[in-house]
Amino acid sequence: MKGVVYDGFGPAEVLRLAELPRPEVRPQDLLVRVKAAGVNRADILQRNGAYGNQSFGESALLGLELAGEVVGVGSEVDEASIGQRVMAIVGGGAYAEFARVDRRMAISIPGNVSFVEGAAIMESFVTAVEAVSHVGQTVLVHGGAGGVGSACVQVAHALDATVYATASASRLADVGSIGAAAVIDYRADDFESVVARLTDRRGADAVIDFVGGDYLPRNLRSLRPGGTLVQVGILSGQHAPSIPLNLLLHNHLRLVGTVMKSRGVDEKRAMVRRFSEGFLPLFESGGLKPLVDQVFPLVRAADAHRSVERGGGFGKVILAMD
Questions:
Q1: Which residues are CB-neighbours of 262 under 8 A, at least 6 positions away?
Q2: pLDDT tens, position by position, 48-70
Q3: Engineered SS bond to 109: which of 118, 119, 137, 189, CB 3.0-4.6 Å?
Q4: Among 63, 52, 126, 127, which residue's Cα sits nearest to residue 100?
Q5: Whether this model's pTM surpasses 0.85
Q6: Long-range own/partner contacts, residues 45-49 (CB < 8 A, 24 or more apart)
Q7: How far apart are CA 72 and CA 25, in angstroms?
Q8: Per-residue model confidence (pLDDT) at position 24
Q9: Residues 224-255 pLDDT 10s
Q10: Are 204 and 196 in contact (CB under 8 A)?
């Protein structure tokens, strides 16, 4: 099979297409012919060497989510069949023509969802469901146009929360169209002041952030007493921001970190199950929508990574195999 590899850490140029052996199916696995794979920030961090040689999954290949067709079924799997359309979380290996998938991390693709759309669902929406589980009636979502950010906006809106979001000026209308009650231009406006005005200075029940750095104290000041900051990423690259502990203590705030890549298999299975049981039907009814920004063929994986690194899109960047 063909798959994307790299011989050393570095910029997008290190990615190349190579001939690789197909993965072998174990008793509780599915072998999936990959039709499309989502591109995530974690893939770029891995390519750049942020994780070193540490492996959080069972494949050294890039790619944490995919959509495709089942072509092989493990001996202990009795609820999947050849030809079934599935979308799945994988511990690496999605950037290839075939991938081995843990059966309990795969779910059937709704009939009204394409393979490309299916590849835009799992990592973003499973993460969003976990992040939004901490919100109350009002939530501020940073990066509302991004893959996970836009999923958080949709999931929170589906749960009847009032959603405020930040985005670039060119994406304000897009983010408003998926459920945000107010969208803040993060370059032109001070989100802390805007949230104070929108909430009559009470603060939001929760903030979901992907930036970190100097956003952290501003996020904490944007919370009501007893509120929760959910940290999902550190796009700023600043790993040691100053934390106003007096504010954290006085307002009895909570700071929660969540990321999928470093979780164990059992935790990932539970996350997929919660998403499947609680939110998958909303894709069939139109209450949730997969958002695809750009689609690249597998051979242009480097261009797909550059697109994610540039940012500014609306939804996910996808690699398509056909």
A1: 56
A2: 998 887 666 678 899 999 999 99
A3: 118
A4: 63
A5: yes
A6: 47/6, 47/9, 47/10, 47/12, 47/14, 47/15, 47/305, 48/9, 48/10, 48/11, 49/9, 49/10
A7: 7
A8: 92
A9: 999 999 999 887 776 667 788 889 899 999 99
A10: no
The answer to whether the Cα torsion of 109, 132, 308, 263 is positive or negative is negative
| Closest among 84, 85, 88, 112 to 287, alpha carbons compared | 112
Tokens of 182: 């107010």
Q: Write the DSSP assignment of 33-66 as a string of letters.
A: EEEEEEE-HHHHHHHHTTTTT--SSS-SSS-SEE
Look at residue 257 and give its three-state secondary structure. strand
Q: State the pLDDT at residue 57.
A: 66
Backbone φ and ψ for 320, nearest 5 degrees, come out as: -110, 140
- The single-letter code of the amino acid at 263 is R
* H-run or E-run covering 87: strand 85-89
Task: Give Cβ neighbours of residue 120 (< 8 Å, ≥ 6 apart).
Answer: 38, 147, 290, 291, 292, 315, 316, 318
134: number of CA atoms within 13 Å, CB side? 26
Rounded to whole angstroms, how far apart are CA atoms 123 and 295?
17
Amino acid at 47: R
Phi, psi of 311 (to 5 degrees): 70, -170
96 backbone dihedrals φ, ψ, rounded to 5°: -160, 170
Cα dihedral across residues 215, 165, 38, 312: positive or negative? negative
Residues whose CB falls within 8 Å of the CB of residue 93, separated by 6 or more in sequence, listed in order: 3, 23, 57, 58, 59, 61, 63, 99, 100
Do 271 and 6 form a contact (C-beta atoms < 8 A)?
no
Pick from 219, 212, 261: nearest CA to 234: 212
pLDDT of 240 reads 62
